[in-house]
Amino acid sequence: MNTSNDDNSKGQQQVNYQQIFTEQKPLLDLRAPVEFVQGSFSQAINFPLMNDDERAKVGTCYKQQGQDAAIKLGHQLVSGQTKDQRLAKWLDFCEQNPDGVIYCFRGGLRSQTVQQWLKDCGVNYPIVKGGYKALRGFLLKQIDNIAKHPLVLLAGNTGSGKTTLLQQCNNSLDLEGAAHHRGSSFGAYVEPQATQIHFENTLTEQYLCRQFNNVKQRIVLEDEGRLVGHVHLPSSLVTAMENADVVVVEQPFERRLERLFKEYVVEMFAQFCQQKGLEQGTVSFNEYLTQGLYRVRKRLGTQRYIELSTAMKQAFSSQGNDNMRGHLNWLAPLLAHYYDPMYQYQLAQKQQRIVFRGDPQQCIAYLHHSYTD
């Protein structure tokens, strides 16, 4: 890390922002939990200086009485046993992560306070100049850099295993992974989806970690719409994707159906039950499928929606750890009469940009041969 005399006089060290992400340096986030939830970084752990209630009280004091009074109140709230408990966590983090850094929102009072408390305990630990705001700003600048690369889209009908193929490409970015959503109406996971800020942070972290240092390097992405769940792709990236080459992976209907059955039914049922127990997990799983089907009811039409909804309810009545096959009675027609026609229509709009079609092995071979720099 480079050190600047001016920064040292303020108790700060200049940190190479890109190095933080390319080397996945451990980050100790001192912001309140509510700030952390809104947006953070993959290698960050939240051990706040103040909890949400304490932060709110200090903020109110600052507005009403000014900075000095707010600082005094902050020290009163985080003192004694409370301070000792939090300091113990910070010291343990520093011991476990000697190459890490700490930050608050702007790299100001919270970071400097904790840094001084650590120094009083004999631990010199760097803080990020500019804090979370500076790191976030740095990542936002990288989004437009992604769009400057030549892109190639991996397309294919729902259930073709595009995400699995992406993982075999060293020059790929995983949009769905960053969004924590699989893109379809049934694409949610048991855990909540990422926020827009977290999605943007994670996507650019992927980009930096892959070290695309040359804008002439091609990047492989899965063919996505503007929305992945409730997060939206950056406009510059959407525009670049609209002009990208397209590689189409082709898989037989039955193989795609089995993959969707495994992912959306078998694995999701197991995950819901593991997290919430059999009874509540079953209720949550049923709601997940019911809501997924309800979201596409208008495109299905009233009659087909009723038919599939009835088949789904029948599957619910007989499902269990060893009996989930009844869900194929609604999943198969949904794939055949809704997802496949919709995707083929969308693919037809990109016909002029399709450069290759083939099975998974052929597509990977083509991508490696034609798009690996």
Explain what this protein looks like in three dimensions.
- The protein has 373 residues and is of the alpha/beta class.
- The protein folds into 2 domains: 5-137, 3-Layer(aba) Sandwich (Oxidized Rhodanese, domain 1), CATH 3.40.250; 149-373, 3-Layer(aba) Sandwich (Rossmann fold).
- Helices cover 58% and strands 9% of the residues.
- It contains 18 helices and 9 strands.
- It has a 4-stranded parallel sheet with strand order 5-4-8-9. The chain has a 3-stranded parallel sheet with strand order 2-1-3, with helices on one face.
- Mean pLDDT is 91; it is low at 1-12.
Describe this protein with a few key phrases.
single chain; 373 residues; Oxidized Rhodanese, domain 1; Rossmann fold; 2 domains; three-stranded parallel beta sheet; 18 helices; 9 strands; disordered N terminus
Quick recap of the structure?
The chain has helices spanning 5-9, 17-22, 33-38, 52-65, 67-77, 80-96, 109-120, 131-148, 162-166, 175-179, 196-209, 235-241, 253-276, 278-295, 297-300, 302-318, 328-348, 360-371, and strands spanning 27-29, 44-46, 101-103, 151-155, 219-222, 227-228, 231-232, 245-249, 354-358.
